[in-house]
Amino acid sequence: MVEERGAGSQGWQFFRFLEELLAALPGVTELEAERGGALATDVRADFVARFEGRPLLLEAKVTTPQTPRRLREMIWQLQQAWTAYEQLHGPHQEPRLVVAFPGVLSQQRQTVVRAASVEIWDGAVLQRMARAVGVDTPEFLAIPEEEEPAVRREPADELLRRLDAIPAGKTGWQAFEQFSEDLLNLLFVPPLNTVIPQSSTENGVNRRDFVLPNYAPADSFWGFLRVHYPAATSSSPMRRTTRGRSARRRCCSWPTISATTAPDWSGCC
């Protein structure tokens, strides 16, 4: 079910946008939303309708599901909704099971979803559909890659060019360290504060390659981490490997959370 439907939240905006879009699409009839329709509530789908004569069950996710567990849960929810629909109405022709979210999935994740006979309406697809029927889109909806302004791509493209040019071994460590600092600033600032390089712990025993002060609002993801894990910084040790053909495999930084320390960063991107 779509998350955070409180007034002003992205969840509420996304739900309303999908409702308006489905109502405007040619071929959609008998539309019900879970919050106001008995059928949608009974089958526990965010939207139930008929689309071009076939049953349509749509699950909305304001947070784009990027982990295997979330993908499995999403697929299971739609399959359970279809089972409930058949119990109410008897066997029907093949349904359209759809998941909608504002972001985009990697090709690997898309393959997993489509293998379960679930359609993907991601941000780019929703943008095109909405334009075709004149429905306004939320500002947080992803745009098709080919339409992304070059000025928005330039910082990331420049970092990739720099990374490809960094030599392996000791000769490239300073350039890699500066690249890592710039990468963290691009990815996480804001909402985190600017990276502090070579920061020591209070007792001076340990030195962190990078620290990102976390003073994000308490109702945000990073604010949640700060409130529930006793640390106001994210530390980021950067490691280099030479595995694989591309220099891009040298950068390592994904967070793992400890209950007693700041989020630490390890793994390979």
What does this structure look like?
The chain has 269 residues and is α+β, with helices and mostly antiparallel strands. The chain folds into two domains: 10-147, Trna Endonuclease, Chain: A, domain 1 (3-Layer(aba) Sandwich), CATH 3.40.1350; 150-266, no CATH class. Helix content is 38%, strand content 18%. It has a five-stranded mixed β-sheet, sandwiched between helices. It has a three-stranded antiparallel β-sheet with strand order 6-7-8, with helices on one face. β3, α3 (68-89) and β4 form a beta-alpha-beta unit. Mean pLDDT is 76; it is low at 2-8 and 243-269.
The value of Rg in angstroms is 22 Å
Helix content: 25-40%
- For the biggest β-sheet, the strand order reads 1-2-3-4-5
Q: Which architecture of the largest domain per CATH?
A: 3-Layer(aba) Sandwich
Tell me, briefly, the overall form. elongated
- CATH fold description of the largest domain: Trna Endonuclease, Chain: A, domain 1
Features:
single chain, 5-stranded mixed sheet, about 270 residues, disordered C terminus, 2 domains, about 40% helix, 3-stranded antiparallel sheet, elongated, disordered N terminus, alpha+beta, Trna Endonuclease, Chain: A, domain 1
Topology record:
Elements: H1 10-24, E1 28-33, H2 38-43, E2 47-51, E3 54-60, H3 68-89, E4 96-100, H4 107-115, E5 118-121, H5 123-133, H6 150-165, H7 173-188, E6 196-200, E7 207-213, H8 221-228, E8 233-235, E9 254-256, E10 264-266
Parallel strand pairs: 3-4, 4-5
Antiparallel strand pairs: 1-2, 2-3, 6-7, 7-8, 9-10
